[in-house]
User: What shape does this take?
Amino acid sequence: MEYRLLPIFTLLNIALVATHAALPPEVYWKSVLPTTPMPKAITDILYSDWVEEKSSSVHVGGGGVNVHTGKGGGSGTTVNVGGKGGGGVNVHAGHKGKPVHVSVGSKSPFDYVYAATETQLHDDPNVALFFLEKDLHSGTKLDLHFTRSTSNQATFLSRQVADSIPFSSNKVDFIFNKFSVKPGSEEAQIMKNTISECEEGGIKGEEKYCATSLESMVDFSTSKLGNNVEVVSTEVDKETGLQKYTVAPGVKKLSGDKAVVCHKQNYPYAVFYCHKTETTRAYSVPLEGTNGVRVKAVAVCHTDTSEWNPKHLAFQVLKVKPGTIPVCHFLPEDHVVWVPK
Assistant: This one.
């Protein structure tokens, strides 16, 4: 079922005790991974001036509750993180947004516990991202739809700030109050869905973790793979609708069968659902669209799907059964893959 939402702008006021020892997220990355470049999916949502005032807005829509940040003033909103005004975090609104559509009931197609809904089968652009590993070679033609969510541009908070905000189904009333979200609203349901998916146990053989900051994502991924890693994301020349792409020469396998894949969730700040498995093969795949668009795509192939929900989106799209054949999917632009070098 679809709902029409007006993005709402809210007040977030959370106390933060700042310390001189805390590092901005990008500095923490460099301290732990000095030889590993950040992928575009991460640099695009860095909150670089994390102790300075910036223009920002918080709203719900397009499938989630999101924080947009950007430099400049005018009708935008302001953020103060651990800087002026007593060291608090303040977000307040400046203007209204446009109506958007959102399906509250759909679950993430990258969480393998859930069955697909009818809405996902007909409307979810991620449907076009699933394919079979046997088709992963030069010359293969695939109908694909790469999307960058203009409404899900939630940026990273520093670990200090993120850790000061409850992220638990037991604390949803407190969270709603902090974000001025009305309990029982579509906005509240979206937030509850994200928290619920993060709290669900992983499938057999999967280590699952929801990172609420870049630092926590770094810590989880390096604890599973070590510090000698490559981190990649899909990059698209320009946004287009569903079209036919051809796999170009240069398909490259990125790892053995071990990887950490992190999927961006719908929430007021950047939250990534990460899962580590040892039955995953990651590939770098160059694609060329019929309109000339070039994509540096990242594909993940799952060699053991026996524990997935039999009604998962991938099986319904590809017409295969769990555990019978490797299932692959391209990653949207705001998802990240970590692999050993």
About this structure: Residues 186-199 form the longest helix (14 residues).
